[in-house]
Design goal:
WH_DNA-bd_sf, two-stranded antiparallel sheet, DNA binding, 2 strands, 2 domains, elongated, WH-like_DNA-bd_sf, mainly alpha, Arc Repressor Mutant, subunit A
């Protein structure tokens, strides 16, 4: 199941993408409009800022804003930053692979084969969508 952190991160990015002229938006405004706790949203936006998706301006008229064009923000990248691996099992992951302790032979593991298909299809959907695709 998708974590609230990822769900709220997507909602916040979508809200920012819809701003005219990419103007900075205060955390309180995003939180109010998207029904997200300000404290929780602060940590999410900081993570997205440190990952290179957002910029921040201090002072009057300040807030967060997109530093990339929404069409250049892959939802697969957003997902990996906020959620972590796309694969549901570590042995089915491309970027976060780990051998399962309880598995003798990955090539015959039915759970791994199924979860690899789930990963591939999920990845296809996430990679084929940008922030622009879902925001407008």
């Amino acid at each position: 199941m998708l974590s609230k952190k990822t769900k709220y991160g997507i909602k916040a990015l979508t809200f920012l993408a819809r701003q005219e002229d990419n103007k900075p938006v205060q955390i309180a405004e995003i939180a109010k409009n998207e029904h997200i706790s300000i404290k929780f949203l602060e940590s999410i936006l900081l993570l997205l800022r440190n990952s290179g998706f957002l910029g921040a301006k201090k002072g009057k008229g300040g807030g967060y804003y997109l530093i990339k064009d929404p069409k250049d923000i892959s939802m697969a990248k957003v997902y990996r930053i906020l959620e972590g691996p796309i694969a549901l099992l570590p042995c089915a992951s491309h970027n976060f692979y780990e051998k399962c302790d309880d598995c003798d032979d990955e090539t015959t593991c039915a759970a791994r084969r199924l979860m690899t298909q789930v990963r591939d299809n999920t990845l296809k959907v996430l990679e084929s969508n940008t922030l622009a695709d879902i925001a407008f």
